[in-house]
Amino acid sequence: MSEFIQQMINGITIGSIYALVALGYTMVYGILMFINFAHGEIYMSGAFIGWILMVQLGLDFVPAILITIAAVSLLGVIIEKIAYRPLRYVSRMGPLISAIGVSFFLQNLAALFFGSDPRPFPLPKWLQRNVYEIKGAFVESLQIWIFIFSVAIMIGLDLYVNHTRMGKAMRATKINKQAASLMGINLDTVISLVFAIGSGIAAIGGIMVGMYYNSVFPTMGFMPGLVAFTAAVLGGIGNIRGAMIGGMLIGILENIGAGYISSGYKQGIAFFVLIFLLLFRQEGILGKVEREKV
Amino acid sequence: MKTAKTLFLFFLTMVFCLGITTLGIAEIKIGVIMPMTGAIAHIGDACVQGIQIAVDEVNAQGGIKGEKVTFKLEDSKSDPKEAVTAVSKLIEVDKIKILYGPDRSSGALACKPIIAAANAVTILPVSTHPDIPGASQGVFRTCPGDEIAGVVAARLAKELNLRKTATLYENTDYGKGLSDSFVNKAKTLGISVPITEKFTPQDQEFRTQLTKIKATKVDGLWMVATSEVPNIANQANLLKLNAKILANESAFDPKFLERGGKDMEGMYFVSPAFYEESPDPATQKFIKAFKAKFPNQPVRMYAAEGYEAMAALLEAIKRKGTDPMEIRKGILSLKNFPGPLGPITILPNGDVEKPFGIFQVENSKFVFKKLLGVK
Question: B144 exposed, middle or buried (CB, 10 Å; 0-12, 13-18, 19+)?
Fold first, then answer.
């Protein structure tokens, strides 16, 4: 029993991070029908900027996090403006390929500046790695913090999208871009905001993972990006609550699957899920089946 | 018109002279394939340091029969596929058949048929899979094989009175080989192995595997990992695994101690016996040469392994000349050839005979404990 609880604890922790990153994918897709393949690198940028501020420059945790969020949100907005917006109405594939290009660019830029070796990311002093025991399983304080932070962010985002005017604008844009713009909603502003929020949230995820695994490295966004994308699809791509559920589920599935089937398949589990979804239920858990109305 | 003609003739003469000069100095060219980028770049870096020392040593004495030794370095990028491309390129494009490397067991295994077909010869500093050496295919090595490392680790476990052990290994040919050889020997020594777990190289999350291992209540763990070691050690401590961890040579490098910190205290390493305080004169000679050439750098074991493989190859060339088929015989003739990790004796099948060193991490330093062989 304690083994099961342990796997659940591990799964929920990493699932929280996947959920945060999945939010960025799902929000962007919801509005633009576009998969931002560079989103994993945004997450990595957050980890590195946080690392520079906290480890190299010795800033305190709170100012460092705030600056990182601001910087990475800005990065997301700039990328959208330079690499995606010009192609938005030109072609369907254009932005996707551009996103792949941005992904490679950011990875190599990071490798150029920091080298490809993982760098240690020590915890800030107030965050001690305490371990608590629950029915034979162990929870680390860091795992609890990650979970609390992630849930808080997700609740915050849900409230924002569903109870503010800007949130309403986002939802309207998602339903029908043209109608929304006819109602006076500035599409470019909404889209930039979506990128900013998604990127900022991913940046927090990046810092948390950097600390959790005590390492930051240029390719750290590649796998989590793919898994988080799968999580977004699992929850219903375009659906924010779906992304949260999808992220948690994949995290748990990975660990339970690796725990009870075989650890060698751990990384494959997310992709089994993706293939299954694409074959049998593309709309995911909370998605609505979109029938083409003729 | 006249100046143009003069200039042209001048240019031709320059090219001709330069061409003559390169023809005049005969060189022995060795093709080196090492990982300079990628997951095990730290091994490639260190080996090349060793290579440079070995080559400089020989050239300082006038080269081999008056000919200078040089090497052409190709980056295998820590990828077996790139290693194969690099070896093929050296043999076919550069026409170099005296080779060194590639790294890793997967790359070496893949290149073996290419080297055999081309009647070339290569010596490997750090590839330890049991299937690699093949004297008749021209593939030799100076580092003891996995089947030995796993066996020695099992013997160490026995000496530490461990009764139940697990293995946690990287999901590669290399990792599986080391895990299997450990398990087989452990069972003959009466140590039970209730579980073996694997992970994808460069992964960071091991709590799943460690949780399963912990559930079997083992008192020892044989770990085959490289850059993952600091995280495995950290997570094992957080999960209170309470098992003695025995590690293989891949992570036997100060930079992992730096990342792993307190979590790696007490960890045992089974590694070729290289340590700076060694009384062996060959070791001290190498350390002296290393410090002279690379003044502010730590003397890593991989540099010593890189050195001894090149030194052995150059000795074989000294003995038998530059024909790759003859060099093969030259390598086979090495018996008790002195090296910084102990005397090298090449076995008839191309493998090498050498004991391992047991080290333990004390106060964030590797401390040599003893030599341990297969018997």
Answer: buried
